[in-house]
Design goal:
By secondary structure, the protein is mostly beta strands. It has a single domain, classed as Immunoglobulin-like (Sandwich). Helices cover 4% and strands 48% of the residues. It contains one helix and seven strands, in the order βββαββββ. Strand 5 and strand 6 form a beta hairpin. The N and C termini lie far apart (36 Å).
């Protein structure tokens, strides 16, 4: 079982500040899904505290995704409702918007 591999591509290099709030957007590519998951610090590390992250909902490969505890959690669209994707699967890319307290 290989490690969870996720890379965030940011549409802008820094958090866009709106008063005390910060906004960041881009896409996340998950080339090797693993149910143990790892925090995507390229997003979470750019805010004070924990940001709210909204995902596009469905990846480029058709997997259903949610943001959960600092990383992407994926579900198999063809399997039983609520069944996580198997380990070592490329689940594709999904867009995101993150909002939180600006640094």
């Amino acid at each position: 079982m290989a490690a969870y591999a996720a890379a965030a591509t940011l549409a802008q290099p820094t958090v866009h500040k709106i008063g005390k709030l910060g906004v960041l957007h881009g896409s996340i590519a998950i080339t090797n899904y693993n149910s143990t998951r790892a925090a995507i610090t390229a997003i979470t590390g750019r805010f004070k505290g924990t940001p709210t992250v909204i995902l596009g909902g469905v990846t480029t490969t058709g997997h259903i995704v949610i943001w959960d505890s600092g990383s992407v959690k994926a579900f198999d669209p063809a399997g039983t409702l609520g069944l996580q994707v198997a380990n070592d699967v490329n689940i594709g890319s999904v867009g995101f918007v993150a909002v939180g307290v600006a640094p």
